[in-house]
Amino acid sequence: MDDKLYMAGFTAIFAALAANFRELAAPVVILVIAMVCDYLTGMGRAWVRRELASRVGVIGIIKKVGYLVAVAVSCCVDFVVQYAAEKTGADWSGVYICGLTVTVWLILNECISILENLEGIGTPLPGFLTKLLHRLQKTAEKQGDAAAGQDEGEDG
After folding, report:
1. Which of 79, 89, 102, 129 suits 108 as a labelling partner, its CA being 20 to 30 A distant?
2. How far is the C-alpha of 57 from the C-alpha of 55, rounded, in Å?
3. What angle do CA 15, 19, 23 make, to 5 degrees?
4. Sequence-separated (6 or more) residues with CB below 8 Å from residue 13
5. pTM (2 decimals)?
6. Maximum pairwise Cα distance, the chain
7. How many other C-beta atoms can be found within 10 angstroms of the C-beta atom of residue 140?
8. Domain residues of the chain, as ranges?
9. Given this model, what pLDDT does residue 18 score?
10. Short-list 64, 55, 63, CA closest to 35
11. Residue-wise pLDDT tens digits, 119-155
12. DSSP code for 89
């Protein structure tokens, strides 16, 4: 009975977030799918190399939860910016610059990790794919820096 209650609560929270952050719903779902694929391919890589360890697996799960927390924090930043803009008369409704940039960057990071895991297993992959993902990730990072008003030469 408790499992159904937790599932209903999770569904309600996810539905509320999806309704409020429509633009982020699909990227967050893609991120979760990429995180699961990365975890599974990482476990496969560790198994093939005979390096499978439960502690490493738990650390991986903690990192994935951290990713979701980073997305939540970036969504909070977007919400605060939108709220402040609304109070000052600016129209920023529906703009999720931080949340979308962080989510896309993490998706690309997960895809790079998946490819590295597949290479570690012995799956042949075209070299351009990893290079393309790295380039896209750098582009997302530059866009985030630009949105934050930070030049490339600055340290923050």
Report:
1. 79
2. 5
3. 120
4. none
5. 0.76
6. 60
7. 20
8. 22-147
9. 63
10. 64
11. 999 999 898 988 898 888 888 888 878 877 765 555 4
12. T
